[in-house]
Amino acid sequence: MNSLPTRLMASATLSVWGGVLTTFFFSNRIASYLHPAFHWGVLASGIALLALAAGSVIFPESDASGCPVKCQPLWRLSLSFLILTIPLLAATFVSPSAFGASAVRNRGIVDNLDQIPAYSPPVEPPLPQADGSIGESTAVNPSAYLPKNAAGQIKVETVDLLYASAEPTMREDFENKEVEVIGQFMPARTGNPDGDRFNLVRMYVMCCAADARPVGVSVQGQADFPEMTWLKVTGKATFPIQAGRRTALVVADSVEEIDPPEESFIY
Amino acid sequence: MEWFSFSPEDFSYAFLSVLMEGVPFILLGTLLSGLIDQFLPSRTMTRYLPRNAFLGICVSAAMGAVFPMCECGVVPVIRRLIAKGLPVSNAVAYMLAAPVVNPIVAVSTYAAFRGQGAAEFVALRLGLAYAVAVIVALAVLNLPLGAVLKRSVLASAALEPDAGGGSGGGPLGRRFVAAMHTGIRDFLDVMLYFVFGVAVSSLFSTAVNQELIIPLALNDWLAVASMMGFAGILSLCSTSDAFIAATFVAFPGVSKLAFLVFGPMMDLKLLFIYSAVFTKRFVLGLAVGLFILIGLLCVRLSVLGL
Hints:
- The complex is a heterodimer of chains A (267) and B (306).
- By secondary structure, chain A is of the alpha/beta class.
- Chain A contains 7 helices and 9 strands.
- Chain B is an all-alpha fold.
- Helices cover 69% and strands 0% of the residues of chain B.
- Chain B contains 15 helices and no strands.
């Protein structure tokens, strides 16, 4: 990698990758692609690639390093540049940073606790305080730790309701209570005998969007939206037994379209 | 039920997310390979490994416990180690075992299989991966180098000096510069294969209806084979694949085990990445061999009642 054109070509490839990675991080677009645990790795890689891009131009390799074996011809680096940058840039422009309905259909909507990757309910009572006393009524009164909206409805995620459908103690927290849940609209193609149900879906992610699983609950109520429209549903959480299995069903009082939330995934 | 529905938006979304997840690990591996190139004296590895070939392979396959690497990052590292004189069989043992036989994967597998016999799954996953890596490496031991390594890798290995410091020598600054250029070359080389692999796996993971495989869960042989095929297509990272495997509740335990052992050793993206080091024929043989070996071992393990 000694001649200036080859160094420039390699540097250009690294710059494109470094630029895309750092742009994704600083624009927070990365939040729609990866679990937060990976965000800083993306930034570090982006900066490292930009530094390497600059370093490869500024510091040429000495001839003593065995160039006949290691040097790549310019045409190969040019081809490599095209293969490595065009798909990346094209995908960056084409990708809507969210899955569409066909991916959700192909992956299948998860509506059973058994199909959820190891998930821990996010809401837990606080630990005893410094003086040894238990936080105010937290251990006995779920309303003390379940977040609520201004109207007093419990704010839940689709995955919380799935957990509640399978765990009696958690179910008591939600059953027949007013809840608010947000998600994306998908028509119910099965389990919809009266034609008055739809699915409300959130993408549950372990590492990155590629492993996202659409976790959904049934909603009883009239809704006619394009697939994957973001909705806020308020209504009563119920857990009827259907086809021999307890399921989560929200009987909707209201269904309204909303803007996509800042955090589209649940983890 | 439609089995294939391609959406450019979904494809590009999955494609970008896997690229972003994998690039930091590949970059880390290639930078490490540059440093190995310049600062690890040739033949150091062989000096510290047992002289007995079998013991050497056994130790190499366990090195992931000390030097954990993911399946993407390990390839540039072993390419450089081969150039530094590490026997190819030892390199293959490390390459296949390190992404699984390491503490990070043990913890993530345990977490994913909580309530599903987590300790047994961890022990079986790591144990089986170790055994498979050793068996494959022993097979490689008997193959001529020309049938295993690409000509360019073979040539670089042959040109490495037998002793002394790294390949560069000279002032420290010059060696760091040389390490940087080596890392860049390896990065660009491996990324070519990675991009192809991710493109193919993203196509399958977004366009193909995955519910169609459910009927395959009813038979152990079919379940094991289909779960390995699924692992190959999804091309998941070994640190997170257990969380996905655990959700295939309809499938028997042995098929999940096959998924967890086969996936980090061979998948669509690795098929391309391995081609940066090994001959096409060897890579194809490795894919088929791993599929058969892991499949047979897992089906035999069904006697454990998994």
